Amino acid sequence: MTDDRCVGCGERTLNERVVPLDVHHDGKCRVIQDRQTVCGNCGNVSYIGQQISDHQRAVASAVRDMDGLLSAEALQLIRRKYGFKQTDMEAMLSTGPKTWTRWERGKVPQAKATDKLIRLIAEDPCVARKLMEQAGIDNPDAAAIFLRIDENAKHLGRAVARAELRRLEGGNPDEIADRVADAAFETARGAHRQVTTFTEAA
Ligand SMILES: [Zn+2]
Questions:
Q1: What's the structural domain count of the chain?
Q2: Which of 86, 151, 160, 177 has its CA 20 to 30 A from that of 49?
Q3: What's the CA-to-centroid distance between 31 and ligand 1, angstroms?
């Protein structure tokens, strides 16, 4: 399959194969399908070209699975949901440069503590917005999405308040005010998740 010579014996007898490979991590084990190069003459196993990053990604993915971490694809979805750049995520999470990029490419898994914070960002736009402000990020795309999130929550809150008012019409004014305020509050809180699902589809 290749003109390359074997680093073990120097013969041009290299072949690609896919074999199951055990990945051990933290007392657990996952089997990956490993694409590798094997020498038909001496049996030396190596990784060539694309096989190198494929191998790195497969191992990192197995580690993510064993640690219960978000996948590389999920990281990208979460970032795009808010219109953030990779450098924005690195600033928000105080990681080194290119760290998020490596996570998103799937070559390196994120730490468990960071994974928890990323899940909070994904679930709660307030967390995302606060981290963005703390990091001093000026991103018009993200700002526009946060504006939409606010607008949508406001619309939902108003709709619920109107429905409650109609339902309680003619009752005690204080009780009506409390019920309407509580209903609008609960709706605004719950709206976050709906809105982020909405922006994900956008
Ligand atoms: Zn060889």
A1: 3
A2: 86
A3: 26
